[in-house]
What we know:
The complex is a heterodimer of chains A (395) and B (285).
Chain A: H1 3-7, H2 12-25, H3 27-34, E1 62-67, H4 80-89, E2 92-97, H5 102-114, E3 123-127, H6 128-136, E4 140-141, E5 171-182, H7 184-187, H8 194-199, E6 207-210, H9 213-223, H10 233-248, E7 252-256, H11 260-263, E8 271-275, H12 279-285, E9 290-292, E10 298-308, H13 313-323, H14 326-336, H15 345-352, H16 354-357, H17 366-370, E11 372-374, H18 377-380, H19 383-392
Parallel strand pairs in A: 1-2, 1-3, 6-7, 6-8, 10-11
Antiparallel strand pairs in A: 3-10, 4-10, 5-8, 5-9, 5-10
Helix pairs in contact in A: 3-5, 10-19, 14-15
Chain B: H1 2-6, H2 10-38, E1 40-43, E2 47-50, H3 55-63, H4 65-96, H5 101-109, H6 116-126, H7 132-139, H8 153-177, H9 181-189, H10 194-223, H11 226-231, H12 239-249, H13 253-278, H14 280-284
Antiparallel strand pairs in B: 1-2
Helix pairs in contact in B: 2-13, 3-13, 4-8, 4-10, 8-10, 9-10, 10-13, 12-13
Amino acid sequence: MTDTRLNDPITRRLFLKRAAVGAGALSLPxxxxxxxxxxxxISAQTGAGGASTEVxxxxxxxxxxxxxxxxIDKKGSSRPTLEKFTAETGVNVKYIQEVNDNExxxxxxxxxxxxxxxxxxxxxxxxxxxxxxxxxxxxxQKKDKxxxxxxxxxxxxxxxxxxxxxxxxxxxxxxxLTGIGYNPKFTGGPVTSVEQLLTDSKLKGKVTCLTEMxxxxxxxxxxxxxxxxxxxxxxxxxxxxxxxxAVDSGQIRRFTGNDYLQDFPAGSTWAAMTWSGDVAQLQSxxxxxxxxxxxxxxxxxxxxxxxxxxxxxxxxxxxxxxVYDPKVAAEIEAWVNYICPVEGAKEELAKIDPSLxxxxxxxxxEETLAQVKLFDAEAAxxxxxxxxxxxxxxx
Amino acid sequence: xxxxxRHRWATPYLLLLPGMAFLAxxxxxxxxxLANTSLQSGDLFSGYVFSWAWENYTDAVTRYQAQFxxxxxYAGLATLLxxxxxxxxxxxxxxxxxxxxxLLLLFIIAPFFVTYLIRTLAWQTLLGDEGFVVQTLxxxxxxxxxxxxxxxxxxxxxxxxxxxxxxxxxPIYVSLxxxxxxxxxxxxxxxxxxxxxxxxxxxxxxxxGVFAGTLxxxxxxxxxxxxxxLLGTPHQSMIGNVxxxxxxxxxDYPEAAALSFVLMSAILVVVLVxxxxxxxxxxxx
Lengths: 395, 285
């Protein structure tokens, strides 16, 4: 696809995977930190939520922005849009690429957040269900909407998620799709349905699914005709059975983060559930690789900007307003290649790079969007459901 | 100074102080919190509260027996393999390495300058189904045509062995290095064959190294989860994978803590039995 993309071997999801593994090594210390409060557990803390009237409309000197790796425009060692923000507002940006994994980030700061302590982050970017958890636990603050007139540019489909119906706390950063990638050289033909992926004996032992429960279960549920946007326990269980059979029969080789990036070129994986943002990387490593949204429907997910407890609401809101300017959004998009949540960015991007603006993985058309669903955020964080899924993947 | 002169008895205690303080801060206190957490009940949203919830332990033992046993098996096998591979290797370096000793040792350690994770990820490519290793083994009919190396128990055990090899090799090297050559010569002067001299003199004198190497390999290997995650399938998951999932994904901190305690106790028992059999008192003097 784009040069920037192909030249950058480290994608956000690759980092996610590597760090997810590394994070485990931190488990014990984090575990200790998690109970540092003397075993009192987590006390629900309301943060400064709802205090938008008290927000002082004065910019801080520095904005601390915690984001995923390789998730913002870059030119050499500089980040042009961040520099532009500093030039326009005088606010320096401390950009930290520390979110490698939703759960890992949560585990790292949970102890402090549960005590209502400042974590010294003005903005953090987290995926839907984790954003929902942060809001539910009262670990985040309301945005100052008066400072974000550009929020009007938010695409309609993302305006009212169930977990933050008026977008009081969150604002999308980027979205991505989950579908099927396959290597026709080995599969001998297209693999376009989850049913085929999980049962076609030609693919036995050469199939991988994702360790992210909403992605894998969302696809399997749709294959069974169930609705992943509103998860019914019976439908979930039936999807679990289908998945378990595929594990027991040896059809599914293993569950991955995006280490499918290693498995495809090595010929170990022939067909797998994969993320749209990795398509460019996959196609450069595995020529001929195809990526499709499954016949029965794919998944869409969104990463959201949030203001954690202690963050400067006005400064953070001012930055959110800045990135919702279609021109700025287009600049970021030209580099990150995920799905842009800002209306008007497509037209602006056409001026920078017309071919990118036509890419359906960055600006999916109506038809594509009709084929993908958002996983039930509450179910995504439901302990029982998560345990059932973890049991299938062997733990 | 004068204080120390007047209270000579205090010197050893003062010398012990830094170590004790370290143990207290980095072992005792965390262990206390871990124990406390392991007896809590509740959930992430309403909070976890201490309640003598022993069921965390019964649950841990009954539900995850398979993974516990698998961890001990894999770790035991990997330790044995690491011993069989590294003993002849470091024996040769210690006695025949000459002036290349340090360089050869560096070769053992060099791969470990690369991060654990990256090394294991590299194995995914190395052992890939269409990769050089598998293709060669298939050509030689050592592996069935549709066989694979990756995503098998073999791959997981091999990965653990590889990743912990230096922890076995280095202690054995040190104890072999320190052996007084004259003892071996004396044995040979007394008409011991070379094999006998090795069995009666060299090997027993290297046992402290073997003992240390075994512990350094077995203990972390039993808690490892990266090899099972990257080189295995759901059928190879180890107890480390379960603990990671409980802590990170499910956010069931008490159960994760209980599992960690059970793992610690299981390892302790295995190590005590091992020490008993090998006679650690004889080893450590």
